[in-house]
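Reading a protein record of the kind used here takes little practice once its layout is understood. An example of such a record is reproduced below.
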Amino acid sequence: MRTREDRREHLRQRVEYWSERLKAEPRIVRVQCMTRKWGSCSTSGIVTLADDLAGQDPEFQDFVIVHELLHLRVPSHGRLFKALMTAHVPGWRSLEVARRQYRDVSAAFEA
């Protein structure tokens, strides 16, 4: 079984891979405990990923990573953003549904 640091390093490597493909360089990449989201991207270039993302399917990991990295180039979820998501993660819409369902269920258990 991989250690927590191994899982975090795996996510950082996936970010590096996608950063090169998307030509989107985050200033800082954080992997930390997040209970309500899988990831976030700040306007200052900080990409934060949930540490438990490493335990999800690789396709889902890439979806979350691409989503956050694209926000470095396109801040909104408009047409351009959606077109880029489709170009890089063709099945992203079904993954989006799964993303919302999982964290919504998790948040309900926290209450």
Remarks:
- The chain has one domain: 4-110.
